[in-house]
From TrEMBL:
Keywords assigned: Cell membrane, Membrane, Transmembrane, Transmembrane helix, Transport
Coiled-coil regions listed: none
Annotated signal peptide: none
Main location: membrane
Alphabetical GO biological process terms: transmembrane transport
GO cellular component: plasma membrane
Pfam families: BPD_transp_1
Subcellular location, record wording: Cell membrane
Keyword Membrane: yes
Keyword Membrane: yes
Protein name listed in UniProt: ABC transmembrane type-1 domain-containing protein
Amino acid sequence: MRWLSKKQSFVILLAPTLILFTLFVVVPVGIACYYSFTNFTGIGSPTFVGLSNYMTLFKDKVFFLALKNTGIVLGVSAVTVIPLSFLLALLLDRAFPGTKLAKALNFSPNIIAPILVGLIWVFILDPGMGLVNALLRQLGMVSLQPEWIGGRTLTPYSVAFVYLWKVLGYNATIFMAAFKMIPGDIYEAASIDGAGGAKKLWYITIPMIKPTLLIVTILLITGVFKIFEIVVQLTAGGPNHLSELLVTYMYYMTFQSTKYGYGMSIAIVTFLLTAVFAVIYIGVTRERIGEE
């Protein structure tokens, strides 16, 4: 009877979360999956077309361009956001004059709406009126005026840079919170044993914040696949779809071309890619942590 009571309590406590998860995750994914097998255009009843949308998708050059651009943004973000936010956290975790102001400024980009972030960087990176190219012109470097946004080559890297600027402080704050959870006694014992700062960092700090590294990486992966407002403001996916990401191309096909079924097939593929990346990373990380 006692065991049943505990089980019932567990179910009652878990039920609200499961209900909300079902309503806001399972049901929308299920609806999107259903529409991805139809030719629904927003008017009339959807007609089942089987795998037709997916067959078209894998022949779509713009889709693969959007996939490539998303991969570039993800790759650049992975090798910049995590190490730089970790180094920034190490810097801000030390006491120095103006620490509180520095921490506030560090977090401030994260509280700016993404659409405003995009607008700010349009004024900085726009090839014609942007501050960067204007400065290059003033310095006499007229020939050196790259298409930071809007071109095929540099746009994904510019998007990754803007995303880095927005999330750097947030991730650094997460790392700083993780540093506070490490007992000071461990560092004191290491100092007594003659360990220097570098050894403490490598053998104590990094191993003990691996769960936080996992969280930050998952947030990074899911965040990149959700970059929307920044791209819309910077380039709107143009010109001629050259700067599309998966999520912006999904939006274009769904709401501008009114090909809801096709747009939902892009959404499902994006969802599956995000899940696969996250599951693989979690599995690899847990295996390494278990070995240690």
